[in-house]
Specification:
mainly alpha, MetI-like fold, 14 helices, 73% helix, 0% strand, flat, ABC transmembrane type-1 domain-containing protein
């Protein structure tokens, strides 16, 4: 009995080679700036501007990281960013998830108008509302405070979380909640015990996106904070002067600033993957 060996299809192999080759090129293109920034933070000032650049072989130094924490107190600004982003996202999730459920399941008067109004708040350029916000927060005494900045970031993240979570709730069959209410649950209990656990991956994905938007926000923090209430992006900007740029400090501050979102994404990666693929396959 002879066994036949399957001959590889040259066309199929060629398609795979092109696909993986294109993926590798795109990955390098996207990751190279991050690699350059990270290595710049470990280089000495005299070797940063070398031509050709020292990609891998260079004298490693931690002087830029030391200066960040000893001279600039960068840990305080990282904490400010984390506190503002976390607080804004938590408040947005607590308010946004029930709001998304109401828009998805309940007979809300003029639901389409309300949904469009919520979405339209994301269309407004931040500069258009910056002056009114500054006047308002100055009047109530919330300028140069983390609470005021948290409120503005909450206004940014809430519409986005409502819309993302609403899309996930729309994918759930209403029969699940109806079955729970037949078994004795009221509407709130069905929402808490049935809907929330099922859309938790979507909530995690929406919260993570909101965290990124809040963490990277620069303009609102520039106008509404100062001194000890500044956030990490403002410290990155302070390394760029009128006549020169401290490239080592810029690389070190940029590297430390992207670490918390990266660590957070790794911690909730299972929920993120499940949330991004939720509803992709329909029975």
């Amino acid at each position: 009995m002879s066994t036949q060996t399957q001959t590889p299809n040259p066309a199929l192999l060629g398609k795979k080679a092109v696909k993986y080759g294109f993926g590798i090129v795109v990955s390098i293109w996207m990751l190279f700036p991050i690699f350059w920034m990270a290595t710049t933070g470990f280089k000495r000032n005299e070797s940063i501007m070398n031509l050709p650049p020292d990609w891998l072989l260079f004298d490693v130094t931690l002087v830029h990281y030391r200066d960040l924490f000893t001279e600039f107190g960068f840990h305080q600004f990282l904490f400010n960013s984390f506190l503002v982003a976390t607080g804004a996202v938590l408040i947005s999730v607590v308010i946004g998830v029930p709001a998304a459920y109401s828009l998805s399941r309940m007979d809300v008067p003029r639901e389409q108008d309300i949904s469009f109004w919520i979405l339209s708040t994301r269309m407004i350029p931040p500069l258009a509302v910056l002056v009114p916000l500054f006047i308002f927060f100055t009047t109530v005494g919330l300028t140069d405070s983390l609470l005021g900045l948290m409120i503005t970031h909450f206004l940014i993240t809430l519409p986005m979380i409502i819309w993302i979570v609403k899309g996930f709730i729309d994918e759930l069959p209403q029969s699940l909640e109806e079955s729970a209410m037949v078994d004795g649950c009221n509407r709130i209990q069905a929402f808490r015990e049935v809907v929330v656990p099922l859309v938790m991956p979507g909530i995690a994905a929406a919260a993570f996106i909101g965290f990124i938007f809040s963490w990277n926000n620069f303009l609102l923090a520039l106008v509404l904070t100062g001194g000890g209430t500044r956030t990490a992006p403002l410290v990155i900007q302070s390394s760029m002067g009128y006549l020169s740029i401290d490239w080592g400090m810029l690389g070190a501050a940029g590297t430390l600033t992207i670490l918390p979102p990266v660590v957070l994404s790794l911690l909730i990666k299972d929920h993120l993957v499940e949330g991004m693929t939720m509803g992709a396959v329909k029975e």
